[in-house]
Amino acid sequence: MWYLIIPAAAAAIILGAAYAVYLAAFRCGAKYCSGLRDVRDTEQHRPYREAILALVDEQASRPYEPVGIISRDGLRLFGKYYHNADGAPLQIMFHGYRSSADRNFCGGMKLCLELGCNALLVDQRAHGQSEGRTLTLGIKERYDCCDWVDYAVKRFGSDVKIILSGISMGAATVLMASDLLPDNVVGIIADSGYTSPEAIVKKVLRDNKLPVRSSYLLVRLAAKIFGRFDTRESRAVDSLSRSKIPVLLIHGEADRFVPCSMALENYNACAGKKRIFTVPGAGHGLSYFGDTAGYSRVVREFVADSLRGGAAADRDPGGRAGAGRAAASFRRVEISADS
Prior knowledge:
Strand order of the largest sheet: 1-2-4-3-5-6-7-8-9
CATH architecture of the largest domain: 3-Layer(aba) Sandwich
CATH superfamily of the largest domain: Alpha/Beta hydrolase fold, catalytic domain
Low-confidence stretches: 311-332
């Protein structure tokens, strides 16, 4: 009898632990997400708190058209469309982990409208007004990204030019979708994106002093059983190696969540035109506030170059960094290249 009870008890314990991991890492919804005005109380965020809240309030006051699509697995996904001008290019923006587009893109929306683009802010699956209970770190979200692009092409016409933008998990989403997109997508802006779901999960495990190998097996099991996805199914670096879409990578050099070195890995993986811009002292997702002028300039240049189909000119105003240079040694990195 014991030879049956012990394995059953062990399996129950493992499943219970996996479910706890699923709830902690992948379950999403209103109670798991931060509020629109919830700015983290850290030394990296405090200097920008008032500026962030002012832009959040400005963004929340903008009128929009509610729009939606149905995902490939049957979820109703919600978005906000902001019309700027007839026939204008469209930016589609994807927010980060347990966050919101209105907060993540409070600065990006202002810049987008100044550039004369129309904008579509997406609630990622299991966030905001979109359906779903599970986030997948970009695995399923990359297909949602493709479906939003299809929606835009059907609505605005086959000649519409689209720029995809993402922050954190949203950046990984658009990068992992980069080899699946139509020619309408002429550029991708990825701010604070990681190289793969597996890489960021293992980094978080190390940060929390957990045994990476065994803990990752449990995380992957949790994702497969309760989230119905595999954390090894896609990697941004692989997608970028197969894509020719121009990419602008932006990263804070003091990012403690997604290390700046991941931006260089993504940069090195790009098979198409690419540009990287890093901001000294900026934390995760804070590059816009750490250097608003520099951020705005590089985005303006990239968008203009992408819309006219040209390559960004090589610029290196503050010291060039070679591939693989350690993030800790960065001092303003701005590189562009044609592959």
